[in-house]
Amino acid sequence: MGDYFDTAKARVEQGLEHIYCVKDYSVCLLRAEGRELVVVGFTGKGRLFECAPLIAHKAKVRGFSSIRVHTKRKGECRFLNKHGLAFEVVEHRDNGEFVLRLEL
Known about the structure:
Elements: H1 5-13, E1 18-22, E2 26-33, E3 36-43, H2 48-61, E4 66-71, H3 76-82, E5 88-92, E6 98-103
Parallel strand pairs: 3-4
Antiparallel strand pairs: 1-2, 2-3, 4-6, 5-6
């Protein structure tokens, strides 16, 4: 999360972003932007392949129409696609960040 840590802490305290523990070994920071669920941060070494489908399922059940992920990892979209989630790269920013979206 790098430079975003202090902002994230304040946004959690304000109730604008929420921390979730997934399967007792991963933690994600999420926020809603209208009907889009934004994955602000995720940690859980080697567990994304297990957690991503759970996050997608919960998002759909809760009425979100899409999920957006911001990442510096170039291969994350390919990795998620390999595990059955049809994310697409919708933007590649000058700072090296990739914006991915999954339509639910």
